[in-house]
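New to this. Please check this protein:
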Amino acid sequence: MKKNVCILFAALLILPSLFGIRAKAIIYNDYIEQFYSDCYILLCTDNHEILFSKDINKQTKPASLTKIVTASVILSEVSDLNQTYAVPTEALDELAGTGSSTAGLQVGEIYSIYNLLCCLLIPSANDAATTLATYLTGSDRQAFVDKMNALAESLGCENSHFTNVHGLDDEDQYTSVADMAKFLENAMKYPEFKEISSMSQYTLPASNKQEERLIRTTNFTLQSSYKDYYNRYIDAGKTGSTSGAGHCLAVHASNNGYNYIAVAMNAPKYDIDNDGYDENGAFIDCREMLDWAFKNLRLVSIADSAKIVAEVPVKLGKGADFVTLCPSGTAFSLLPSTVTAGSLQVKAIPDTVPEYVIAPVKKGDVICKGEVLYAQEVIATIDLVASSEIKRSLLSSIGSMILDLFTSSVFKLVAILVFAALIILIILRRRGIIKSKKKVYKVVDYNDFAKKK
């Protein structure tokens, strides 16, 4: 059911801020024959480059993916997860008549915050969500929701807004797959979140009201028995499903130093392969994207700081008439495994190359822009910098100053004014308007001078 691998690339760059390298996003969507989800994204968390995407900023209902945010608020504010709490009546009353997924918690039942988080993230229990929220902010549910929205704002999630802690459909509660990828990446910084959401099952200890019991995950991508969904590199995640949100999944996966987040939302569930069982489209989409990325992508050096790419003339240089250019730093990109560094080309972008530069030039000075190409396709834009230092020549500098003086606009203007003044003076003298003043000398007779004696 899969097409042959197309010649596609994604410029996924390591440390772009250091090297001034910018990726041109090229998506791999054409590789997968069919996606089932209305929105999806595969994000490399090592460099935040997107590999697969569709409507990543579309606002859609989050269902129980909401619980990623709920758990994050708890983990950010509760330092001791061994603290215990008795399930309050109001936490269960809030869910009355919803018919929603629960862990069967009972009023007055005492569990640790850690165990309540297990109920929240493994079987996706709504009663655990309301209990945890009440533990943190009491009966003021809006106070907890405000913390969720504050987290969204702090992460730059502009297409997200929450009105409840569990994910039941609400017209004013929404998110996007791009935002959900941010929420999951943030949650992964808490070891307890990764630990709990990686469990396929958990033995909930006996409480003051119930015996020890086993709770099982709703995330079948973690279980090898579900061959249509399983990916052995998935190490955390959360499911969601409501009539308004469809089927949703957000997972994190790691292998050989590569780390990805896959999110699929508003997917259908039906018998896709005619085997008599309904398949979850979100689970299939996430598994397909991750399978392909781990199988086909690897880091390739796309920019070598030691490689000379171009040269630019230098004026006033001491012992040098030109400066050579190289990439601003060594960088890597996630590209198909068939691509090698030798098949990539780096060249200067003509429109950015100056006619010349004036010494002194420091090593590392940005001179122009360059681009990395594969099969004549631009996959990245980079800074090209001076590969060596070039000092200014003293004699050339003096000569240049003199030349600049005589060719400067001010000098030319003064010369024109002086020349014009001389012409006017000559004309006026010729017309007699201005006469030359001659000195008159009095002739002294020597005899007169002698008589005075």
Q: What stands out?
A: Residues 1-25 have pLDDT under 50 and may be disordered. The first helix runs from residue 16 to 19.
